[in-house]
From TrEMBL:
GO terms for biological process: DNA-templated transcription elongation; DNA-templated transcription termination; regulation of DNA-templated transcription elongation; transcription antitermination. Belongs to the NusG family. Keywords: Transcription, Transcription antitermination, Transcription regulation, Transcription termination. Residues 3-111 form the NusG-like N-terminal domain. This is Transcription termination/antitermination protein NusG. Residues 121-148 form the KOW domain. Participates in transcription elongation, termination and antitermination. The keyword Transcription regulation applies. The keyword Hydrolase does not apply. GO terms for cellular component: cytosol. InterPro entries: KOW, NGN, NGN-like_dom, NGN_dom_sf, NusG-like, Rib_uL2_dom2, Transcrpt_antiterm_NusG, Translation_prot_SH3-like_sf.
Length: 175
């Protein structure tokens, strides 16, 4: 079986989110869920200052491009290539080129998403101690684990109230 890779799809500039939506609908209607997996519009959070006020906005890292995780075949190529707004794959002539695994990993990490294969040593209900950050030394209970992001939601007792914190795995240890 062919392996899944990340491919870069060129779109009309400003149509990245529309292409993502259209492609998700096409995958569903053509039954390609087993060949085309994730579609991402790479963005990063930036802080902008307007009229003295700071505002966090999501900026596209690669305007005019969308990342598609898929198993390349004639059928999957056809579905993606013929989605409205798609102008083509980034390729070496005629054959679409997959991103190198380290490139894809770097882009996903930049978006706050890791590789899905990250194993978590933490589980819901675990008692943990915060070992880094402003809540260092606090003890809490893991409520949710997000291995893709390398983060967990932890409830700590602060001022007599349960307070949820979002912590990276590196900021806590089992207690």
């Amino acid at each position: 079986m062919a392996e899944k890779n990340w491919y870069v799809v060129h779109t009309y500039s400003g149509h990245e989110n529309k292409v993502k939506t259209n492609l998700e609908k096409r995958i569903e209607t053509t039954g390609m869920e087993d060949r085309i997996f994730r579609i991402l519009v790479p963005t990063e959070e930036k802080t902008e200052r307007k009229k003295g006020k700071e505002k966090v906005v999501n900026k596209k890292i690669f305007p005019g491009y969308v990342l598609v995780e898929m198993i390349m075949s004639d059928d999957s190529w056809y579905v993606v290539r013929n989605t409205p707004g798609v102008t083509g794959f980034v390729s070496s002539g005629t054959k679409p080129l997959p991103l190198q695994p380290e490139e894809a990993s770097r882009i996903l990490k930049g978006m706050g998403m890791g590789d899905k294969r990250i194993a978590s040593e933490f589980n819901e209900g675990d008692r943990v101690k915060v070992i880094d950050g402003p809540f260092e030394e606090f003890i809490g209970i893991v409520q949710e684990v997000h291995p893709q992001q390398g983060k967990a939601k932890v409830l700590v007792s602060m001022f007599g109230r349960e307070t949820p914190l979002e912590l990276e795995f590196s900021q806590m240890e089992k207690s």
